[in-house]
Fold this protein.
Amino acid sequence: MLIKTKSGTEIPSSEITPEHIYHSRRKFMVGAAGAAASTLLAACAPSSSSPIPEATEQPAATAAQAATSAPAATAKVVQISANEDELGDAVNSFEDITNYNNYYEFTTDKTGVASLAKNYPTSPWQVVVDGLVKNKRIYDMDDLRSRFDQEERIYRLRCVEAWSMVIPWMGFPLSKILNEVEPLPEAKYVRFETVYDPEQMPGQKSRWFNWPYVEGLRLDEAMHDLTLMSTGLYGRDLLPQNGAPLRLVVPWKYGFKSIKSIVKIELVDKMPTSLWMTSAPNEYGFYANVNPNVDHPRWSQGTERRIGELGRRKTLMFNGYEEQVASLYSGLDLKSNY
Ligand code: MTE
């Protein structure tokens, strides 16, 4: 991975170099992405026989958003420090990253998320951290940005649907929050929950999924330095389509583990059941480590399509982070613990 910390450096958003200067050579191929979207649409759906999730009427629920009235503070921002990751793979363009998204709360159409999500209110916002911890906390975004230095990390994101991107995230290690709340000895897992707001997130009216979106990590995975709470990308605050204002990024796992728009983080003693484990337990497991040797029941995981490239490339074990994370899984059968 490529990590750069510029603690204390504050650059107003207005001074950030426009993304096209970094990546003018990479053009977002709307046509190609659209075609791919229709092919991949069912990839994360519960099973091959399931239709595309439909919008259905359900009672409105209260959004778990914050009730504070202060506007979000301008993030500490930095310019991206490199055009490629540590393997020499080019960073995807801002256009790629912000226009080809998976965010089922809005739509299953990857190229439609940005426009549907664009007015989603992400400020004010609070995140509750509780469960098996010594110090329960409620953070607002200003707290998170001012307490923890924002770092730039260029990570590969490999979706379970076999496409990938290289993204210059901004954020801080999840371990910083966990160290503040101090997990109790009984805490073995971390459970994350996305905001539940079906009035503004039309996809959450779909009965195909058990909303809200939930994900989980083992505590040692959550404490790993690569595990990032992201507040931005390309040196600026996250846009709604990428999970603003706060999302998880776990670069050695399939992208669905990187839950967006988090409002709750809970330390628990039992393995959390994620939205995907409930929807299709035979297809999506708890670990979801990128593994070219364990195929999805409906397609190969041996190769992937890097967005912006024409051919396919080989998928790397643990998405190329094997050296850093393989020891977390020594003795674990990666085939049955998919
Ligand atoms: N988080 C929520 N709440 N809802 C989602 O539908 N999709 C996941 C993940 N996090 C998803 C989510 C999947 S399948 C992927 S590949 C990544 O978000 C995509 O992140 P991106 O759109 O920022 O590239």
Observations:
- The chain has one domain: 2-329.
